[in-house]
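User: Sequence recovery, please. Input:
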């Protein structure tokens, strides 16, 4: 069973989510701060999905989006901050 990372975005905010078999199993929300920054403010993973790497995959996808759109990321969410702390190759968007 493969998961898919998807993005839902509106004017001022958005979220990444992990879909498995048509069901959302994890979500990471962000808000836009001005023209060129996003603030990751919350990450949650449904019970039973711990250890599957969903949170890190969503953070990585946010980095991909930030690089494509020339955005900086402010990780206010403690989980997202910990991913950046442990993963130096993602820090170019901070």
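Assistant: Recovered sequence (94 residues):
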């Amino acid at each position: 069973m493969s998961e898919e990372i998807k993005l839902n975005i509106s004017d001022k905010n958005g979220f990444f989510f992990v879909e498995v078999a048509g069901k959302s199993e994890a979500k990471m929300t962000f808000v836009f701060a001005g023209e060129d920054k996003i603030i990751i403010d919350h990450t949650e993973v449904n019970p039973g999905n711990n250890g599957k790497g969903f949170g890190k995959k969503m953070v990585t996808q946010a980095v991909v989006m930030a690089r494509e759109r020339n955005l900086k990321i402010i990780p206010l969410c403690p989980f997202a901050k910990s991913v950046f702390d442990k993963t130096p190759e993602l820090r170019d968007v901070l």
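The chain has a mean pLDDT of 96.
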